[in-house]
Amino acid sequence: PEIYTLSLHDALPISLYAGSRDPLTCRRRPQEARGRLRAATEGARTAMRLASRRRTYEILDVGRQDDDASRVADIVLIALVSLNVLAVILESLPSLAASYGGFFLAFETFSVVVFSVEYVLRVWSAVDRDDADYGRPLAGRIRYMLTPMALIDLVAILPFYLGFFVSFDLR
Hints:
By secondary structure, this protein is mainly alpha-helical. About 65% of the residues lie in helices and about 5% in strands. The chain has helices at about 30-60, 70-90, 95-125, 135-145, 150-160, and strands at about 5-10, 10-15. It has a two-stranded antiparallel sheet with strand order 1-2. Helix 1 crosses helix 2, helix 1 (about 30-60) crosses helix 3 (about 95-125) and helix 2 (about 70-90) runs antiparallel to helix 3 (about 95-125). The longest helix has about 35 residues, at about 30-60. It starts with a strand and ends in a 9-residue tail after the last helix.
């Protein structure tokens, strides 16, 4: 049979046999084979995206003790919150604020970036909650964003970003 070879992202060559009944093959033209390949690739990407979103939800929201990634994420976030509390206390001392002001600012920026990424990932993965109320893509995410814990997370990082638009310190 006639063989058409296409490449997927210029790294993975895929041979399609013209008379085969495989869903990735084409009987007539390379254009049809490309269309089938594109559809199969999109399906695989969607499946991978759904699996990674579910895994993100499991790591950030479930907090299972038998899951190493979830446990590490919990420990890192709790440690970062604790270090931020300590940094605010130490920064309130005028002598330390004068000496280490640059360090405190860099640590605050780093922390806000980490907490912002965490917040965005929680919102993104909220539709994978077991509760059916969160199942719809937009409504589920908005419903999650209106939960008390999500609002607390948002209030914690919002002053940093408002500082770009308002000229006084909102901390």
